[in-house]
Write a structure and sequence with these properties.
single chain, 2 domains, alpha/beta, TIM Barrel, 29 helices
C-alpha cells in the first residue's frame, strides 16, 4: 500500500469508472472510459484486499492511520467496498526474511482471491521494493484477469479521497493502465489453497499477521516453485529413453538427482529396502527358512511332546525326514528348538558358503540336490490347516519386511492333501490367511501344475480348481475370485514339453487366465519359444537362455512378455559369474539381466524359494547387482520395480493403485537416501 491512499482511489476509479468521478475532468477521459468498458464494466470490483508493512513515518503517518482514513472514505460511499488489509509484522522490507515473508503473503493473497471464484485484478501501483515483482509472480502462477498500473509524473499527494471534485490540473498527470492479463498455470489446480491460510488478529478491516505464521510447513512459494521445476523437468525428460518406461515421477527430478541414480550402485539390503517392490515368483512351498520350520513345528508339538517316540537322535534322522510319519516329522523339527543354527549347519553343510552354493545342476546334472534342501518344508511340512496358515503368515510378514507393495504367491494345494485335507480345504486356508493378514499389500495366488507329474494328475489339478469355481461353496468362490490371478507350469523342463501340455491348459486359456511358465532355466531357448507359442505364456519364469535367441527376444519386447529372474536360485542351480566372488565363479557365464535391461525387456527380480535359497527380495537385488558386470544402479532398480507392476497379473485397477502407491514410496525412499 505504501504511504499514500491516492493510489487506492486511482485504481478503484479506473476499475469502477461508473461509480467514481475522479477521472471526469481528465484530458484523456474518453480513452480511460473506453479501457474501462473493454475490461472492467461487466465485472467491477466489490472486494479490495491490501497488504502493507506496519510503518510509522516521521510525520506521524502510519499504516493504521491511513487505513482508518480509507475506512472512513469507504463508509461514505453509497456502495462501499469489502475492504481487508493484511499488516505485515515489520515496518519495512529490509531483510531476506522480510522479503520472503512479503512474497509468501502475495502468493497466498492471490491464491485465496482465485478461490472465491471472482475475477482477480492485481495492482502494481504503490507496490514498493519487491512487492510489485511478488504480485506479478503470483499472478503468473494463479492467473490474473487484469494487471493494473498507475503512472504519475507528479509525486505530490493530492489527497483525492478527501475531495468531492478533482480538477483537470490535479488529475492530468495520472495515467491508469490496463497492463495485460495472464492465464493461470495449469499447475495451480494441483494446489489446495486452503492449506495455506492467512490468519492473524482481526481489528475491523485490519488483520495483523505474526512472525511465525509460516513456520513448520512448506511455504506456498516453495510449493509453486517445486511444481514448476518438476513440470520443467518432465518436459525435458519426457522423451528420455532411460526414463520412458520407468516410473513417471522420475521425470520430475532434476538432472543432478538423475545422474546420482545412474551412478550409485546397489551394495546393501538396507540401501534398497525403501524401494517399493513386488515379488512375482515366490513359491509358498520353499518360503520357510530353517528357523521358521522349527518354530512352526514347535508351536504345534504340544500334543506329542511327552511321547517317548519323539526323543530321537535328530542329526541321524533329519536326512530321512521324508520317510517318517507326519507327526514324527513335526516332533523331529521341534526337537531343534534352540538349536536352529546347528540344524542349518547340518542341513546345508558346505552350501552355507555362498561360493560353494553355486551351479548345482552343472555339477550334479539334476535338480535333486537343490530340491532336497527343501525337504524340511513344502509337502513334508504343510499338511495341516494350522501349519499352512502359519506358513502363509510368515511369508506375508517377510514380504512386508522387504517393503513389498504386492506379492504373487505360487502354490500347489494338491501337494498338501497327504494327511487328510482336501484340495478345497487347503486352498481355502491359504486364501483366508491371505485375506486376514495381507494388511494393505496386494496379494495374488498363482496355482501350479507340475509337468513332471503324470498327465492324469495334471488334468486332475485343473479339474479340482474348476470344481471349486463351479461348486456351491460361495465363501471359497469369492476368495478365489478375489485372489487367484493365474496359473503356472513348474517342474523339470525335460519332463514334458509345452506342446504336450496344451490340451491340459486349453480350458484355462479359454477362460483367459494369465499364464506363466518355468522355461529356459536349464534348457535352451526352444523351450521358451514353445511356452510362448504353444501355451500363450504371458510371462516366463527364469528365461535364462532367451538371451541366446535374438529373434525370440525381439518377440518378447514387441509383445511385452515378462521375465521373472531369480538371482540366488539361478546362481545356485545354473551357476553364473558373481563379481563379488570372482575367485570361485569366474568360469561361469554372464548373467543375462544386464542384456535384458539394455534391450528394454520387462525383466524383474524375484525370490523363487526364499527359504531354500536363504534369501529375501532386498537380498535378491544385491545379488543381482553382484552378478552384473559393473553392478546395478539405483535407476536400474527402479526400472526393475516398475517392470514388476507392468507385468503382474493383478487387474488393471489394482495396477494403477500399485503405481500410485509406489510413486509415493519412491519419494520417501529418495529422501531417506538424501537424494532429494
Amino acid at each position: 500500500m505504501g504511504n499514500a491512499l491516492d493510489v487506492v482511489y486511482e485504481v478503484l476509479a479506473f476499475t469502477n469508472f461508473a461509480s467514481h468521478t475522479l477521472y471526469n475532468n481528465h484530458q484523456n477521459r474518453s480513452a480511460i472510459e473506453k479501457t474501462y468498458n473493454t475490461y472492467f464494466d461487466s465485472d467491477p470490483v466489490s472486494d479490495v484486499w491490501l497488504y502493507t508493512t506496519d510503518f510509522i513515518w516521521k510525520d506521524g503517518i502510519s499504516a493504521c492511520s491511513l487505513l482508518d482514513t480509507l475506512q472512513a472514505w469507504n463508509n461514505r460511499l453509497s456502495n462501499p467496498y469489502n475492504i481487508k488489509c493484511y499488516i505485515l509484522p515489520f515496518d519495512d522490507i529490509a531483510t531476506e526474511f522480510q522479503a520472503e515473508y512479503a512474497r509468501e503473503v502475495a502468493f497466498r493473497l492471490v491464491g485465496l482471491a482465485h478461490s472465491t471464484g471472482k475475477k482477480v485484478y492485481i495492482s502494481f501501483a504503490a507496490g514498493r521494493k519487491t512487492i510489485a515483482s511478488d504480485l506479478q509472480s503470483a499472478g503468473s502462477f494463479f492467473g490474473c484477469d487484469a494487471y493494473i498500473h498507475v503512472l504519475s509524473s507528479n509525486p505530490k499527494d493530492f489527497k483525492y479521497i478527501e475531495k468531492t471534485e478533482v480538477s483537470a490540473e490535479e488529475i492530468n498527470h495520472i495515467i491508469p493502465l490496463f497492463y495485460g492479463r495472464e492465464k493461470a498455470n495449469i499447475l495451480s489446480s494441483k494446489i489446495n489453497i486452503h492449506d495455506y491460510p492467512l490468519t492473524g488478529t482481526n481489528d475491523g478491516i485490519k488483520v495483523y499477521l505474526n512472525n511465525n505464521v509460516f513456520t513448520n510447513q512448506n511455504t506456498l512459494v516453495e510449493t509453486c516453485h517445486d511444481l514448476q521445476e518438476k513440470a520443467h523437468n518432465v518436459y525435458v525428460h519426457q522423451r528420455s529413453p532411460e526414463l520412458l518406461y520407468n516410473f513417471p515421477i522420475l521425470q520430475q527430478l532434476g538432472d543432478g538427482i538423475l545422474q546420482k541414480l545412474k551412478e550409485i550402485r546397489i551394495e546393501s539390503e538396507e540401501q534398497i529396502r525403501g524401494l517399493p517392490k513386488i515379488d512375482l515368483h515366490c513359491h509358498l512351498g520353499g518360503s520357510l527358512d530353517v528357523t521358521d520350520c522349527v518354530d512352526i513345528a514347535y508351536n504345534l508339538w504340544s500334543a506329542h511332546q511327552y511321547d517317548p517316540a519323539f526323543i530321537i537322535d535328530p542329526y541321524t534322522k533329519i536326512e530321512t525326514i521324508k520317510q517318517l510319519p507326519f507327526t514324527k516329522r513335526i516332533g523331529l523339527l521341534a526337537s531343534f528348538k534352540g538349536n536352529e543354527a546347528a540344524l542349518e549347519q547340518s542341513w546345508y553343510e558346505a552350501f552355507l558358503d555362498e561360493a560353494a552354493f553355486c551351479g548345482l545342476y552343472e555339477t550334479y546334472k539334476t535338480f535333486d540336490v537343490y530340491e532336497q534342501l527343501g525337504d524340511l518344508q513344502g509337502s513334508v511340512l504343510l499338511q495341516t490347516k494350522e501349519i499352512i496358515g502359519l506358513a502363509v503368515q510368515r511369508l506375508l510378514a517377510k514380504a512386508i519386511q522387504d517393503n513389498c507393495i504386492a506379492l504373487e504367491i505360487r502354490c500347489s494345494p494338491q501337494n498338501y492333501t497327504k494327511e487328510g485335507l482336501t484340495y478345497r480345504e487347503v486352498l481355502q486356508i491359504i486364501l483366508e490367511t491371505i485375506d486376514t493378514y495381507r494388511t494393505d499389500m496386494a496379494v495374488g495366488v498363482i496355482l501350479i501344475a507340475s509337468r513332471h507329474r503324470k498327465m492324469s494328475e495334471m488334468y486332475e489339478t485343473i479339474e479340482q480348481f474348476t470344481d471349486v469355481v463351479e461348486g456351491s461353496n460361495t465363501v471359497l468362490k469369492d476368495l478365489v475370485n478375489k485372489y487367484v490371478i493365474g496359473f503356472d507350469v513348474a517342474g523339470d523342463e525335460k519332463a514334458r514339453s509345452p506342446a504336450e501340455l496344451r490340451s491340459v491348459f486349453i480350458a484355462l486359456l479359454q477362460q483367459c487366465f494369465p499364464i506363466t511358465i518355468h522355461a529356459g532355466e536349464i534348457q535352451d531357448a526352444q523351450k521358451i519359444w514353445e511356452a510362448v507359442y504353444e501355451l500363450n505364456a504371458d510371462r516366463i519364469g527364469h528365461g535364462l537362455t532367451l538371451i541366446d535367441n535374438p529373434d525370440l527376444l525381439l518377440k518378447f519386447l514387441n509383445r511385452n512378455i515378462g521375465i521373472e529372474l531369480c538371482p540366488s536360485s539361478n546362481y545356485q542351480i545354473v551357476g553364473f559369474k558373481d563379481y563379488s566372488l570372482l575367485h570361485a565363479t569366474n568360469a561361469y557365464k554372464e548373467y543375462p539381466l544386464q542384456g535384458y535391461l539394455q534391450n528394454g525387456l520387462k525383466v524383474t527380480i524375484n525370490t523363487d524359494n526364499r527359504g531354500i535359497s536363504r534369501t529375501n527380495l532386498c537380498r535378491e537385488f544385491v545379488k543381482a547387482s553382484h552378478m552384473t558386470n559393473g553392478g546395478l544402479s539405483l535407476l536400474d532398480a527402479l526400472q526393475l520395480s516398475k517392470n514388476s507392476i507392468d507385468i503382474s497379473f493383478f487387474p488393471y485397477k489394482v495396477k494403477q493403485e500399485l503405481l500410485d502407491s509406489a510413486q509415493t514410496k519412491i519419494g520417501e525412499w529418495l529422501k531417506s537416501l538424501h537424494l532429494v
